[in-house]
Amino acid sequence: IVESVRLDKQLAAQEYVLQRSRKKYVQACQNAEKLSKDPRSFQHTPASREAEELHRNVVEETRKIQVHYQHSKHRLASDFMSLEQARQERIKMTMERIVGLHRDQGQY
Fold first, then answer.
1. How far is CA 14 from CA 49, 51, 58, in A?
2. Are residues 23 and 70 in contact, defined by beta-carbon separation less than 8 angstroms?
3. What DSSP assignment string belongs to 88-105?
4. Known InterPro entries for this protein (predicted)?
5. 33 pLDDT tier (thresholds 50, 70, 90)
6. Which secondary structure element, helix H or strand E, spans residue 38, and what is its range?
7. What angle do CA 7, 13, 16 make, to 5 degrees?
8. What pLDDT, in 10s, does the model give residues 40-76?
């Protein structure tokens, strides 16, 4: 459960970084567009290239975290189910042992 909460927080933080990166990229493109009369050349300014590269890197990092998140969630669910099955098996064995002890003592 702790691992699940940690993964949720990590994904939320990365999504926030992605949103900030997207805003910076759009802002840089808009600023460059204001400086340039030719709307086709606004993406070729150093600031917009830097913002675009930063945004591209953040998008890639977000994808990696999302994939890790999905795999980890499945692994955690599988681990939890294994633990739950083991717990149920231990309870069953304990109950059988208790019943066996009572039978041996002639109480049933």
1. 22, 17, 8
2. no
3. HHHHHHHHHHHHHHHHHT
4. AH/BAR_dom_sf
5. low
6. none
7. 145
8. 555 567 777 787 788 888 888 888 888 888 888 888 8
pLDDT of residue 91: 92
* Residue-level pLDDT at 40: 55
Contact yes or no for 58/18 (Cβ under 8 A) = yes
Q: Residue length, the chain?
A: 108
**What is the spatial distance between Cα 42 and Cα 27, in angstroms, rounded to a whole number?**
11
CA atoms within 13 A on the CB side of 97: 6
Q: Which amino acid makes up residue 60?
A: E
Using a cut of 0.70, tell me whether the model's pTM lies above it: no
User: Domain segments of the chain: what residues?
Assistant: 2-83
**Residue 19 near residue 13 (C-beta atoms within 8 A):** no
